[in-house]
Every structure is written in C-alpha cells, then in structure tokens.
Design a protein that fits this description.
five-stranded antiparallel β-sheet, single chain
Length: 75
C-alpha cells in the first residue's frame, strides 16, 4: 500500500482511496478536495518532511504527514 506520504517531489499520482479509522480526519481531508480519482501533483516537501505541498484541482494545498498518510494512491 503506497500513500501520498511516499510520493517524491515532481510526481503526479491518482487517489485510490482514503483509509484510516478517524472519520473526522478523513472528512477534513475530503473537504479539502482530496477524493477518490483526483490527481495530485507533489510540488514541495519541507526539509523535515512535514508538511507536503501539493497541487490538486487547480490550487495549492499543504498537508501534514498525518493527513498524507491516509491518502492511498494507485501504483
């Protein structure tokens, strides 16, 4: 299982599904536009790895490692 946290800078990936037991976190990530089938381009990763800056649906978004961990991507 590969997650958004594992994606390298410059890669474009597609969201497979959102996993995780915390439904509040899952809902928050979905409200930011990260849904099944969306394409994500990883723009930058902070020096310590947190946060990850992505482009999704035409806008830039920064996600914490914790949030990126629940986003499963297609291989």
């Amino acid at each position: 299982m590969r997650t958004l946290r594992d994606v390298k800078v410059g890669e474009t990936v597609k969201v497979k599904k959102l996993s995780g037991a915390d439904s509040a976190l899952k809902r928050r990530v979905m409200d930011m536009g990260v849904t099944k089938g969306s394409e994500i381009y990883v723009r930058k990763v902070a020096p310590l790895g947190d946060p990850v800056e992505i482009t999704i649906r035409g806008y830039e978004l920064s996600l914490r490692k914790e949030d990126a961990q629940i986003v499963e991507i297609e291989d």
